[in-house]
Amino acid sequence: MKTVAFSTLGCKLSFAETSTFEREFLSAGFTVVPPTEKADIYVVNTCSVTAAADKKGRNFIGRLHRLTPEARIVVTGCQAQLRAESLADMPGVWAVVGSDYKSDLLSIATADILDRKVFVKPIGESRKYFSAYSTTERTRAFLKVQDGCDYHCTYCTVPLARGDSRNAPIAEIVGQARAIAAAGFKEVVITGVNTGDFGKSTGESFLDLLKALNDVEGIERYRISSIEPNLLTDEIVDWIASGTKILPHFHIPLQSGCDRILAAMHRRYNTDFFRRKIEFVRSRMDHVFFGIDVIVGFPGETQDDFETTYRFLEEIRPAFIHIFPYSRRAGTPAAEMPNQVSEADKKARVQALEELCERLHAEFYAANRGRREQVLFESTNKEGRMFGYSRNYIKVERDYDPALVGRIVDVIL
Ligand code: SF4
Questions:
Q1: How far is the CA of 78 from the centre of ligand 1 (A)?
Q2: In principle, which of 10, 14, 83, 155 could form an S-S bond with 47, CB 3.0–4.6 Å?
């Protein structure tokens, strides 16, 4: 067995984990091939955040088996943790590797024989932390700093798939950031499940982590992949605004602009808190890019509730809205709630928010036109054009120039 192909069907965190598996296989002498080609081993890092993600995972595994029937398919990620037995029964699946066995994935995949197919511990017993960072892309690296979640929002399966909140020590993460810098990356995306909840298993704080990463030579920019509003403390905001490498780009889950729905979701803030948080950040930093997550069609959400959410978004004016139609997930309290919203209503609400997002996004770009900004140009050459992102996540395009790949340059937006 000498060739292996990797696929990530989930989030930035999974991407960092897959890239870490890839480094392990390369050190073991494997050649990495694209998953569209024949391979001896396929590693599939799955997602299970929605029913659609589950379906996509199974279809993908089926396709790989048809491509190379004799190959070993090793399935890991959230779907592996939540639906191990049904995945193990699929043709071509050699092993299903859950949260606690990720550091054994290489040895499981390459074992001569296995005494079982399922390597999954009940999530309540999962304590291990699998350290990971990506070096596969050329421009920015994903650095996993935290895993699991203790929040248990009523619609979410993530705690069931990833276990309790835990993390690596700051010293270890700083070591990984130095390795990323040594590999020539200038930008790092700090990622986790509940990133701001960093420190649960080491007694350290998220602010301490940011300060330590800020001192790593060679890395010039950090983006926080996502952070709960209640964990983006005023102290953290003040420190970021004091002139650091942490960029003015915040991805913050709101989920609903209606307090009654936020309470039913067991979110840890209300709209007044959220509004004041956005205002506080804006009072400390200019031209901040806010990407806001919103779920539409949560059980019990009336048309009035949705319109309240719509008006709230119009008021706080994010630069982008990440829109998710509610997905009923077995094992979550919300799945058992009355007044499930019809697919037609969800669709109409998604469409309304997409139109709003387009308007707000254009407005944010217009408000930045003519400003001087620093852009990190990426390696992609698309029909002689290249692109990059400003500090506040504005996409800039220009004629391709290989000398600019991976460089941060001043531009007028
Ligand atoms: S904080 Fe996020 S990951 Fe945790 S339960 Fe809530 S939605 Fe899921």
A1: 14
A2: 10
- Burial 360-382, CB ≥16 within 10 A → b, else e: bbeebeeebeeeebbbbbbeeee
How many other C-beta atoms lie within 10 A of the C-beta of residue 261? 21
Distance (Å) from CA 341 to ligand 1 centroid = 21
Q: Find the helix or strand (DSSP H, E) in which 75 lies.
A: strand 72-77
**Beta carbon of 149 within 6 Å of any ligand 1 atom:** yes
Confidence of residue 379 (pLDDT cuts 50, 70, 90): confident
Amino acid at 276: R
Give the pTM. Answer: 0.94
Distance, CA of 311 to CA of 85 (rounded, Å): 45
Ligand 1 contacts CB of residue 74 (under 6 A): no
Of ligand 1's listed atoms, the one at least distance from the Cα of 228 is 1
For residue 152, report the distance from its CA to the centre of ligand 1, in Å: 6
DSSP-derived secondary structure for 43-110: EEEE--SSHHHHHHHHHHHHHHHHH-TTSEEEEEEHHHHHSHHHHHTSTTEEEEE-GGGGGGHHHHHH
List pLDDT tens digits, range 151-199. 999 999 999 999 999 999 999 999 999 999 999 999 999 999 999 999 9
Encoding tokens for residue 195?
A: 């990133």
Q: Is the CB of 360 within 6 Å of ligand 1?
A: no
Contact 169, 214 (CB under 8 A): no
What is d(CA 25, CA 5) in angstroms, rounded to the nearest whole number?
Answer: 10
Mutate which of 152, 158, 332 for ligand 1? The one with the most ligand atoms within 8 Å of its CB, which is 158
Q: How far is the CA of 297 from the centre of ligand 1 (A)?
A: 17
